[in-house]
Design brief:
By secondary structure, this protein is an alpha+beta fold. It is 26% helix and 26% strand. The chain is globular and about 45 Å long. The protein binds zinc ion.
Length: 171
């Protein structure tokens, strides 16, 4: 297991359509383990293989129960509702933008051994499934936004949502 380097916007790896995984071998297991380690170190909620320079359809997502889910050859089979909120990406460090996504998403995928399963998520997890699956087709969330949020806009958003900002709760 190892921490891999996360490529950032501008790298052509992030613009390519990834190929399906066809061999559920040690190489895939190493990739998934590395994705999990790299995600943990980066303190993110999701990471896709192309973000570490591997053009294969594999992602890891931390769901709202704090479980790390490995999704190989994933596809969204159902979605409903709508949510609009700030979204960021480990490949676009230090920035975020407002993106509208479905509020509830169901995904069908294979596990590391090739077994098909289904999983679902709402709110942040649904957003994360949509975001990570887009990476597999060479797309970034920035295609959905007209500008990156300023710190002030982000602070306003959280204030409107009723969150106390850290600076305020510390005082
Ligand atoms: Zn991303």
């Amino acid at each position: 297991m190892a921490i891999r380097t996360i490529v950032t916007m501008g790298d052509e790896m992030l613009t390519k359509k990834c190929r399906p995984v066809t061999e559920f071998n040690q190489r895939l297991h190493d990739l998934l383990d590395d994705l999990k380690d790299t995600l943990a170190q980066a303190q993110g909620v999701g990471l896709a293989a192309p973000q570490v320079g591997i053009l294969r359809r594999a992602v890891v997502v931390i769901n709202d129960e704090d479980e790390v889910i490995e999704l190989v050859n994933p596809e969204i089979i159902f979605s409903e509702g709508e949510q609009t909120g700030p979204e960021g990406c480990l490949s676009v460090p230090g920035k975020c933008g407002m993106v509208t996504r479905p509020d509830h998403v169901r995904v069908r995928a294979q596990d590391r051994y090739g077994n098909w399963f289904e999983t679902e998520g709402t709110e942040l997890t649904a957003r994360c499934f949509c975001h990570e699956l887009e990476h597999l087709d060479g797309h970034l969330y920035v295609e959905h936004i007209d500008h990156f949020l300023t710190e002030e806009e982000l602070a306003d958003y959280y204030r409107q949502q009723g969150y106390e900002l850290e600076e305020e709760s510390e005082s």
